[in-house]
């Protein structure tokens, strides 16, 4: 099994702002569980019979962050996951999209 990931982030100013209070980050990830050593039995299979012995997972995530106040960070995120087997949606799909939003109070 092996994995790798990479992140690119660009800070920028929102319109009307005088400082770089926002950012866009893009992250890519890959995980290869060649022998089923870590994910075997964790992910569902499409048929329910037989063991899933090899799984490759790729993902791409884009995050938009905005800090309107020194103590407040708002983020939205979209993530796309792909696999070489149908392991998402209870074994019905080989990909999925996830949306996330958060607000963080900094102190």
Outline the structure in words.
The chain has 107 residues and is an all-beta fold. Helices cover 0% and strands 57% of the residues. It has strands spanning 2-12, 22-33, 55-69, 72-83, 95-105. A five-stranded antiparallel beta sheet has the order 1-2-3-4-5, with no helix packed on it. A hairpin with a 2-residue loop joins strand 3 and strand 4 (72-83). 4% of the residues are buried.
Offer a concise description of the structure.
The protein has 107 residues and is an all-beta fold. It is built from no helices and 5 strands.
Q: Fraction of residues in helices?
A: under 10%
Cα distance, first to last residue?
39 Å
Poorly predicted runs of 5 or more residues: none
Total helical elements: 0
Major sheet: order of its strands?
1-2-3-4-5
Average pLDDT for all residues: 86
Main β sheet profile: 5 strands, antiparallel
Order of helices and strands: EEEEE
Beta-strand percentage range? over 45%
The strand count comes to 5
User: What is the structural class?
Assistant: mainly beta
| Overall spatial form | elongated
Rg calc: 18 Å
């Amino acid at each position: 099994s092996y994995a790798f990931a990479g992140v690119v982030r660009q800070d920028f100013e929102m319109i009307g702002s005088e400082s770089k209070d926002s950012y866009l980050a893009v992250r890519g990830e890959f995980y290869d569980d060649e022998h089923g050593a870590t994910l075997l039995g964790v992910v569902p299979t499409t048929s329910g019979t037989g063991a899933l012995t090899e799984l490759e997972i790729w993902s791409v995530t884009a995050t938009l962050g905005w800090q309107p106040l020194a103590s407040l960070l708002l983020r939205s995120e979209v993530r796309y996951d792909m696999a070489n087997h149908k392991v998402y949606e209870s074994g019905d799909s080989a990909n999925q999209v996830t949306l996330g939003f958060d607000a963080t109070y900094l102190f």
